Predict the structure.
Amino acid sequence: MDQQTGSTTSTPVEKMTPLAPTLPSTPAPSKERRPSAPPPRRHRAWIWILVLALLGAGIYYYWTKRTSAPAGSATGAAGRPRGPGANAGAAPVDAAKAAKGNIGVYVTGLGAVTPIYTVTIKTQVNGQLMQIYYKEGDPVRKGDTLAEIDPRPYEAQLTQYQGQLLRDQASLDNARIDQARYETLIKQNAIPEQQLATQIATVKSDEGIVKNDEGLIQAVKVNLIYCHITAPITGRIGLRLVDPGNIVQTSDTNGLLVITQLQPISVIFTVAEDQLPSVYAKQRAGQRLPVDAFDREMKTKLASGTLTTIDNEIDQTTGTVKMRATFDNSRNELFPNQFVNARLLELEKRNVVLIPSAAVQRNSASTYVYVVKPDSTVTVRQVKLGTNDDTNTEIISGIDQGDVVVLTGVDKLVEGSKVSVHMEGASGSGPAAASSTHRSGGAGKSGQAGKTGKSQ
């Protein structure tokens, strides 16, 4: 044990003498080299994130530049690929071809829907309103029963007058017999002549009394008819003004109900007195002038009719004259007292050159349009305008049929500018597609009432 212990003790003692300085020197250098150690993985992750972000930004920039390039820079107007630098800097524009067609000259005025007949039903006899045979808003025909007033007082009165007539008729018959007797006696000089004259007067008096009785009976019979109220016209009933059970009198001002004729119906509108002579001349010549009724914003056509009447005087306070146009109104498009814009077709110009109104440009000196030449450049043309309907414009001079005119993008154009053309005619919005429909909205959607159908 001692030997082992001694050997064991002596062996570590000898070895630990040289190892003692080595053990503490091993960790010391590691602490001093820590600043020069490779960076942790956390720093490397941030570097990769930054690289990926820059790469993504580059891809996004390249893609946006590619998609925002003009459509005309890669292909021609007909879809054919262009060579490098072809049509470089061409401005994209919308264009349409000038075409021949028809356009109307219109007279436009503000108006209101006015029923041809409006009847306020009032009682013509005094009595209690017993029953009504209609519902509010119902359409009725002429002769339909609407209401009933208590007829019993008039039936009793009729019986009374009939009895009175029988009594007076008997007196008349007796007086006539006496007159015949006196006429026989006077021939025999049996009675004085005065007695016969008196009897003749008595007969005539009795005849008057009988006639009066017959009149009273007729009056009561008429009152009995008035107890059954019927519709005097065909139309539509408004709101009920009196309920059953009320006592109605002939002096009532409101009436029982109102009937308004809806089919046909009219529109009364006003036009300036300067436009009257041409319209009046055509009406006197027997021409049927079409009239279209539009809504308040002059965008939707409500109904079509014809001019029927021109007023007999001009309103001096406004310088306008009233006109009445009649509409069939079979689908109840127009409603009484509705505000409308009436447009009267005064004249139809046929086979004239038309271009979309959007192509017309104006400045202080002239009116012009941009025309696209075959080499895809534009030139400025001075034009003279005729009639316009806010969709198409008549060209009197300066443009020929088939010329291509610019509609949009003119703010970037000058004489000789290169353009990339998109034809509006492909979608049916050119003048040729719209010129044949002027009666159904002026070859398209109309603009403001003051400009529609203006002749320039």
